[in-house]
Structure formats: structure tokens, C-alpha cells
Amino acid sequence: MTRRNLLGLGLGTAAAGLLAGCAVPGSTNVNKAPLVPAAAGSGTVQITYWAWLKDLQKVCDVWNAKNPRVQVTANWIPGGNAGGYQKMYSALAAGGGPDIGQVEFRQIPEFMLANGLVDLARYGAKDVQSKYDEAAWSQVQFVDGVYGIPQDTGPMGFYYQTAILEQAGGEPPTTWDEWRDLADKVRSTGNGNYLEVFPVADASPFAAYVQQAGARWFRTDGDEWVVDMTDDKTMMVAEFFDGVIDAKLVDTSAGAYTPGWYAAAASGKIAAVTSASWGDALIQSVQGGEGKWKVAPMQTWGDTGYGSSSIGGSTAAVLANAKHPREALEFITWMTTSKEGVDAMIKYCGIGWSPAADYIGAARQEPSAWFSGQNYNEDVFVPSAQEQNLDWSWSPVTQSAFTSLQNQFRRKLTGGLKLTDAVELAQREIVQSFKDKGLNVRTAR
């Protein structure tokens, strides 16, 4: 099989083409091999799980106490791009590795390109599809396969400090145009105050904003990838933030949740952050912030796009050399859909939004004293999780795509490059990344 025809892969609800698989050194195409049977006999089945979630073993212990035949051991690894993914790839190449690995949604296509993941549809994963949120499931279903089980997601909302908005004479925005007007009002209060930050060194928020607008950067046409990052929706968002940055309505010195951001938020110089559901735990680290923050629905692009967007989220994926894929699937389904599993994941691991279709977790069904007594999870994030762009999908070059965008965005500050031009330049580099992997690719326009 040639690299040129390696991957004709449709993602999510827009599935088209066929994954042909390319083995990492030392492995075979796991999804063309015979199915691994369920473990026979009465002995204990040992499952290993590599992840960067804190205290994951305590979640496993809840399962282990009631399932003596299938015992799960969690091993901590560094965050994905901080070394965790390389550790997994190295283990796969050596013919080893865990049964289960934590893999972000946006990283799944790259693992698939390396033939690193088991197609769980072969082991009955589609039978549990109805247990999961539609948007979460759309990110793990590729063509007719299922290459991970959603572990947590990140629907977005607008977190804000009530007193600062009141001082500026503004309210939580319902549209991005209202958001820009509010940013201007906050700046007008003086003292160097900003409504929000715009991080040029992190392309994740920008990708979320264009995803909400209705953009679709990557799709397939037969065995060819189509890259479409200069579409009208993306250019609209880039032009919007060009104007916001040029008018000095946002702080571009640091991203959200950095030390500088925490200091500014604590002193009232940063009024808000448009962020994912998991941002609540990070915002609660703002010194003296208890009772001063609330959450509103994410502002929209008016008559176009979707009600919300998403940042982050990961899966529990069964890796190619797993010895017990059936038992691994049984465990991770319990972990991500049962009340016991979801509650334990929230309590011990602080996961993002639960991927379960009908259970957000007991801890998230009550008002929050920290967020001014607001029951924000049910009021904001339950509907937010249902207002996603289901056509959005990632590609096998996601990490290099983010690097290209970030490098070009920095030129906005250093040389005045327009974000619209930065996106176009990044697209050229991203197309080359596809070619470097031996994949057929073209731009949409």
C-alpha cells in the first residue's frame, strides 16, 4: 500500500472514504487482524490505563472493588504533547504499551494514521452509542469505525465578574458584536482594564470561535484531503479579531489561566473569559474571587453558526497492542456513562464535561456558592453541549496546524500581519504538512 493512498478518511457525521491503516514500526494492522477473544478461565484479567488525569487509580478502585475478575491499574504519564503521546508511540513501536490510553479528540486521527488504535466497533462499541452525547460521539466515529470512547468534553460559556460589568454599564453579551461593544465599555473604565484576552500563542480559542461560526477546515473527497481554512466563516472571525486587536480592546500579553492572567483577574483588570466548562475549576483559583463570578451562555455570531463551541476533551482509547480490548471497552463504558463512574471521575480527576447523554454528575446538579449561587452547569452547559457544530472534524496534522497558526498569529504583534493573512499563510504550511505525510491534499479555493 502506498503512502499516497494511505488515508482517505471522513470524520464525524461527514464520514466518507476508507481508513487503510499504516502500522507503526514493529506492529501490524491491528484492525485487519482476527478479533481478540474474551479472556477465558477464572483468572484475573489485568488492564493497564495510561493517562495524565490526577488520581485516576481511585476511579479504577471503585470499579475494581465490584469487578474482581477485571482489575484496572492506572499509570500516570505527562500530558499528551508534553511527552505522553511520544511515550505511547514508543511503546507501540516496541510492541507493547497499555490497553487503554488517554487521547485527545483532536489527536485521534494522528494515532489512526500510525495504526495505533483499535476499532472498537469490532467489539460492539456501537451498541453503547446512545449512551453518549451526540457531539462527543461524532468526534470518535470515523467511517464505520469507533476509535475511542469519549471521556470528557468542553462545551463553552462566558465567565464574567459581575461587579466589573456593572461598573462598565454592560451585561453579558448575547452576540460577538455585543461582546465587542462590552469590551469597549470595559476599556473606557480606565486603569488598563480589559474584558478578555486573545492569546496569539494558543490557537485553540480561535479554532473554537470559527468552529462556532460554522467553518469546516478539514474534509475528504475520495482519497484526497480538502483543506478549507480561508472560507467565509473563518475570514469573518479573523477579520473580527483583527479589528478588536487593532482597537486594543483585548489583552494580547498572555493567555487565560497563566500567572499573569490570574494576577489581572484577581485585581479586576480582566473582567471575563470565554472558555470551556472545565474552566470553572481554573477560575476558582482566582484569589478572592468567590461570589464575584457568574456564567452566561457563549455569545454567538448572530444569524450564522451555532449556539456554542468546544475546547479540549479527550477519549479513553484502546491502543493497538491491547491484550484485552473487550474487557477494556467494558471498563471505559462504565467509567464514562455510569453514575458511579462519572461521579468518581469528577470527584477524583476533575474531568471536563461528562460525555454521558443523560448524566452530568451529582456534583454538577447543585448551585455553586463560588459562582454566586448560580446553578450554571444545568443553566448554561447542558444546553451548550447540545449546540455544537457536528460537522467540525480534526485531521492527521492537527498539532502542526496549531503550530503554524500560532507562529503566524505572533506576527500580528511583531509585524502587524493581519490575522486574515496569517490564516492564509498557515494554510499553505498545513497543506505541506499533509504532503510531508504522503497524503493527497488540495485546498478548497
TrEMBL record:
Signal peptide region: 1-20
Top-rank taxon, per record: Bacteria
InterPro entries: Bact_solute-bd_prot1 (IPR050490), SBP (IPR006059)
Keywords attached to this entry: Cell membrane, Lipoprotein, Membrane, Palmitate, Signal
PROSITE patterns xref list: PROKAR_LIPOPROTEIN
The protein, known as: Extracellular solute-binding protein
The organism's taxonomic lineage, starting at the top: Bacteria, Bacillati, Actinomycetota, Actinomycetes, Micrococcales
